[in-house]
Amino acid sequence: MSKSIGILGAGIGGLHLALYLQKQGIAATVLTDRAPEQYAATRLMNTVAHHSVTIARENELGVNHWDDPQVVYHHHDHFFNFPDGGLLFRGAFQRPSRAVDYRIYLPALMKDFEDRGGLIEYASIQDDDIPALVSRFDLLVVSTGKGALGRMFAHRPELSPYTRPQRLLCVGLYDGVDHGSPDDDDPRGVTLSVSPGHGEMIVIPTLSFGGMKTALLMENIPGGDMADLVSLSYDANPAAFRQTLLDKLEKHHPHTYNRIDTHRFGLAQPLDLLQGAVVPTVRQSWVAFDGDKLAIALGDVHSVVDPLMGQGANMASYAAFELGKAITDAVAFDARFVEDVDRARENRVLAAARWTNMMLQPPSEAMGRLIFAMSQDRELCDEFTENFNYPERQWDRLASDKRIHAWIDRSGRIAA
Amino acid sequence: MSKSIGILGAGIGGLHLALYLQKQGIAATVLTDRAPEQYAATRLMNTVAHHSVTIARENELGVNHWDDPQVVYHHHDHFFNFPDGGLLFRGAFQRPSRAVDYRIYLPALMKDFEDRGGLIEYASIQDDDIPALVSRFDLLVVSTGKGALGRMFAHRPELSPYTRPQRLLCVGLYDGVDHGSPDDDDPRGVTLSVSPGHGEMIVIPTLSFGGMKTALLMENIPGGDMADLVSLSYDANPAAFRQTLLDKLEKHHPHTYNRIDTHRFGLAQPLDLLQGAVVPTVRQSWVAFDGDKLAIALGDVHSVVDPLMGQGANMASYAAFELGKAITDAVAFDARFVEDVDRARENRVLAAARWTNMMLQPPSEAMGRLIFAMSQDRELCDEFTENFNYPERQWDRLASDKRIHAWIDRSGRIAA
């Protein structure tokens, strides 16, 4: 059968799919409005860690240009800023994770795709372009939600519990934050720092322009003491922004504050700041058009999560591979095809959404017990950490209080 | 965790599950209102063929008491009673299928379960017994739709396209029908005979009381020339019933009529006749109760199909094993548990429903082409036949006209 695939959007989902199909000899055309040379002058897009399952896919595609022991990291440090003293503990990955600025990552993969003969068309897609795109390709993959494209896919309320953002984000790349203590045998790690009632901060060693920087992904609870950072202007007064930030970090995230060299601390570049918020949303995975054609949603268009658990990009890459396999095997692009794709991807993709949505809520008593158990039981925390690769396994352990207690008890028995 | 499982209903789904759990050392209690010794005096319950995947499960359970070359069969003969001459062709299974009267089969498996220490409680379940059953067991499996039990599980309209029966059934066990021509090297097979506009007849060599009989499963289209058989009384006038049947078979199903010895032909026993109809229905797979308990639907309660494609019992057995595995692995009986069960069983179970529902419709042009292609291409018809074991594969090939054409074209290319 004819398999001409149009991919709208050049994010990780669209590019991993394009590169996957290219390897299979299937014609894929990527459509995007941003040329590779424009990325360097673009505002920070996100702060994304690729876990080892995603890096394995990059290796399979031959696009892992950052296989560097000075970039990857091996553990999560968990810090809870409890009033009666901080709780600090660690969980390790079996294989390392890695964060590269998407303003470096995406254009590199676009170049890989083009160098290998892939076609990227640079144009802004308007709403009334959609019918022509539908008729041009055998299958349209929508991996950008801009304009009418995202709205084509209906909201699934049963999987989208929130109607407003649960966190107000203030995300930046900073100089002057140590990635660990000098006496640590594994000095580079991510820190998941929690200030109860105020929110979380994810601290990620990130390769950006000019080398290694530190992403501070602040996930602030509306109404909490950190919430105003979502709209505090850096450009109006960089020094005031910096001082406000330092004051709040000292109070709410002291474990990270203590790793800051206040003389060197500051935003790496003026564009390295992103403020905003996400409403976690799952959408229908496909739309049918007249003439027997369909469009399928990939990545954030299908399920957009709050960045708290770092799952969005990893899920987009995972889903791109599952979609790529299904396209390769397809005998028809019809409703059954979409069912096959969803059966392949939804367990993991929806588990990432549910797990993240759960973690946006104040911890239940069972979750509180798990946090304490992980602080005492390294193997348990290692498993929790490794499951950032496998959200469906994490959800198998967290989906109900019964499961959380069973997990703790099982781990305790093994330890005992 | 505590795993005390209550199974309501002693059909194939309930018994295969009970026997499966028994093998795993998990306590299962079967509740049914019919004692083993009552089955012999019961009206014919159905006419069911077990395909090889189901027989393999029986072997795994150690309950295949009918591993007899004189009972099993190896092929399907397809006959179409076209006005300008019949079309006859054959497809073979890779491993044989087998039909045993459920009035023999079910009590034998009940005895197996009890002989191995299993508990069957004989009582009629009333609506107001349900709360006590819910609290008595850790998990309630509902595999009988009698009374309020089936109604607990809501109808899923998006998977249940019909609101009334598509066929009026007249099903019986008969003497006097040859199972094949004497010059046939594989004389025992099932015949799928189609009288366009009037319905289908499935002819199944069946082990019943007194040895091998022939099931005539007449699937008559409402308004067609055979439809009245659903209410024609045998008891009022057996001879008239017999003659009406012979006349209609001669006209609509001549390939089978020609195998009838009219001197010997007749219902094997007065109770060997079942008349009625089925509304194909898919239901929600679970119900939650107060106190953190749930009931899960199995077999016909989950998805009841018209018997046309012989899928109901095979799906109930398949789903029983998937449920049994999930119970064995479970850390909690919660919503995630049901999701796991559904993810394991639904692709096959729903494909059986969809495929059967499609075959209840007049054939599309693509399906007409497939019938003709199968009549010319034995390998294609063998694949169609083998897929009675794997409805999800059948549905992968039949779910849209595009798929049907692709299947025919692929098969043609291989043949050429």
UniProtKB/TrEMBL annotation, chains A, B:
Gene3D superfamilies (alphabetical): 3.30.9.40, 6.10.250.650, FAD/NAD(P)-binding domain (3.50.50.60)
Stretches assigned to the Styrene monooxygenase StyA putative substrate binding domain: 145-259
UniProt name for this protein: 2-polyprenyl-6-methoxyphenol hydroxylase-like FAD-dependent oxidoreductase
Source organism, top-level taxon: Bacteria
Pfam families the UniProt entry points to: Smoa_sbd (PF17885)
Species this protein is from: Bradyrhizobium yuanmingense
